[in-house]
Amino acid sequence: MNWPWSELGLPGPSDLAAVRRAYAERLKTTHPEEDPEGFQRLHEAYQQARRAARKGGSLSEPQAPRPEERPSAMDIPQPQEAPQKAEEGWNYEQIFLQEAQRRAEERERQSAERRERFFAKHHPGSEEENRRLEWRFARIEAALTSLEELLDSRAPLRDWVFFLHSGVFFSVKGDEAFVAALEELLRRTPDLEEPVKQEMAQVFGLRKLVVPDVWQGLVEPLTGTAYQAPPPPAPPAPREKKPLHKRWSVRIAALLLLLFAGLPLALHQIQEVRQAPARQAQALMCQYLEEDLGRRMESLQEGRNYENLFSPWDDPNLVFLAWPDGERDLAAGQRGYATNYGNVVLTRALKDFAEQWKWDMIELEEGGVPNIYGGSPGGYFFRAPLWDNEEGVAALGALMESLEGEDWYQTCRPEYTLRLGIYNLAYYTYTSDTPFDAPRLLDYYQNEAGASLCAYIVEESGLAREDFGGAAYELVPQGAVELDRSTCFLVSGVDKATGEAARQYLFEGMYLASLPAEEFSLDMKSIQLHNGDSFQTSWESMPRYIQIIRK
């Protein structure tokens, strides 16, 4: 049998990174509430595959567990001996691997302890109750495992946000056993980054005046202040009985209201007369839009509210803005109105694309009309990985070219900027004043984007100026290189006086390494890029998740 890897969608034994990626991908479609048995099988397969990956990729006689048999986390591998110093120096790669194994073993030990405490507390009295507890513990452990992986990998904020809004987290968010374990984990991790704490506090609603009992223990580790329950409300004051003459005044007022009950109707008729010109203008706008776009439109204006708002009859959720703009003269290129219809339709298409490809999309103002009902952004920033993403980039190019060919795009041409980048740094920018070139985008992504971004960071951070000490230099992008099965983007720092490369810069996503040219070799290990001093930059746009190592 090929279990547990078949359960994860893997062809066979795989490394730890591949196991984690496969598990994260399957969690998106295996919800604990909708498919509890499938979720439990998936979690058990992940635990088995993870242990196999740490032992070299194999399991002895791997078999899927039967419902009455659950894998135990008690079998903890013994720690390896301390690394020995080789003749040439310390074996840093071995130190790194042993430290990773030590952390993995510690997590296995903590998982076993949690399981023992959980079942010792609940004492299942029947097979059915035991099955429900097994399912509940598997959900809790899946969420805690994800948390530990995020902490160990120092994941960026976007990964935390994705987890905290996932079904894996929401299925245990109110479970007292999970919350207790989370509180313990947070108290063991006091250096958790503040933005992550703020996001977690918001998800649990810890900023509210009243916090449910089950979450009150999280207030201090996430906000830094102890929870204080609000004081009980004061009892209502005794109702004073009104004097007789005041009670009669109330009755007289009610009688007057009845006498003037017809006044609102009269005011409504007056308002209808006043709004007649506005209604005529809105009807004319609908006529123009229908003629130009071939869709029946309706105005959403109600009195003084929702002015200039429209939507198609066949798609009421598509709300956009349109307002009068000069006389209508199609021969002279004047439509008689202005609208953001094109930008609204484009925004919907790009949102659907981002959801399909699991890309983060940030809407940018940049001249748009955001933050109002019917508004639209003037720009879009996609966080698209620099590695192994050719298929997604090609799909984006095909989408943009197909949208440009639509009639609505040509009639109500949107004005916008489209950027691709990582963190807050863009490596590709397109503006809508020129036709979209999909082949050029894909070629740039495959051959230039990573190294160009590396050169940009080296220059803007001040690293090159520090390396060359005032001497003239030139940064020459060299493309991608493979080091120890890790893809890096290479940029050569060339001394203009000699024409020779004096420094080599390698960027692998979270690390940017600067080293003397003579020390660079394609045979070097990627872990060697981490050896050196940390370079501190004053560049305000430098992503905090990128660390610069200078040797």
Walk me through the structure:
- By secondary structure, the protein is α+β, with helices and mostly antiparallel strands.
- It contains 17 helices and 16 strands.
- It has a six-stranded mixed sheet with strand order 11-12-13-14-16-15. Strands 3-4-5-6 form a four-stranded antiparallel sheet, covered by helices on one side. It has a four-stranded mixed sheet with strand order 7-8-9-10.
List the keywords:
551 residues; alpha+beta; 6-stranded mixed beta sheet; 4-stranded antiparallel beta sheet; 17 helices
How is this structure best summarized?
The protein is an alpha+beta fold and 551 residues long.
What is the average per-residue confidence, as pLDDT, rounded to a whole number?
80
- Globular, elongated, flat, extended or rod-shaped: what is the shape? globular
Low-confidence runs: 60-89
Largest sheet: number of strands, sense, barrel closure: 6 strands, mixed
How large is the share of residues in beta strands?
15-25%
Helicity range? 40-55%
Structural class assignment? alpha+beta
Radius of gyration: 31 Å
- How many alpha or pi helices? 17
Biggest β-sheet: strands ordered side by side in the sheet? 11-12-13-14-16-15
Q: What is the number of E strands? A: 16
In angstroms, what separates the terminal alpha carbons?
49 Å
